[in-house]
Automatic annotation (TrEMBL):
Name of the protein this chain belongs to: 5'-nucleotidase protein
EC number: 3.1.3.5
Keywords carried by this UniProt record: Hydrolase
Entry superkingdom: Eukaryota
Amino acid sequence: MDGAAIPTVLVTNDDGIDAAGLRLLVQALVSTGRCRVLVCAPASDQSGVGHGITWRHALPAKPVNIDGATAFAVAGTPADCASLGVSGALFNGIIPDLVLSGINIGSNCGYHIVYSGTVAGAREAFMRGVPSIGLSYDWVASRSSTHDLKLAAESCLPIINSVLNEIRNKTFPLQSFLNVDVPTDVSNHKGFKLTRQGKSMIKIDWTQTSSGVSIKGDATANMYTNDTTDTEKISSSSPAQEQRWYKRVVRVTDNNSEKEEEGDDIDYQALQEGYITVTPLGALSCSEIDTVPYFRGWLLRVIDNSCSSSL
């Protein structure tokens, strides 16, 4: 990024290009006048698809009208969209300075980061060498509103602007990307807090149902609120007696999330305390450090046994 040039920001998400969160984030970015905005987002809701990619067939990219931005809807996953968006192929050779994924309806903390298409969009850009940020809002059904989502997007602007400044000065570390979560009561948030990924996870059970159902609307929000009432049937050619249908259901606990780890710097806990959490992430899946001595000894035993059995 040239010091005198206006930076280019690519926006993607997992809720789909028509999602309110993406539109409000783009609106917030455009209103600052500080960056050129590109959009490459899934044509449909891709919540919970993780870091899946499309490999076996070509993907259509359709121009979409979004005020102040150059936008395309792609029939692929968030990782597909981020990869295509930073490749230079879609935007006539333009490679963005920063990728933003979100703003998602539903928080992405703890183990849910593994499932998150929002985080995957940011991770894919990071893996392609482009600085990135995943952005999520802790939406609560019957309490949160589109206005809160708008405030959540706007509350992330100081982080976004600061990262752009770091990129311009070539001081932003390329070894990590950021995952940002905004608390439900965004208008009364306690400020920004650096956190680390915890182990919180909504507990999921399965229940048998009479027919195939698919959650409509925002899948992430439904997962967090156990709202599966707005459904549509999935047709199947298999005889009814040869198959059974099962659907995921949230096991209700006091807060619909069981914390596996305590600490004031854990992402989920700090979010619930009202902070906007900023969690540096990487793409490597590292083992818990205290298991390494066990596996070192275990592997030595495997090697010894293997040598003994070959004699």
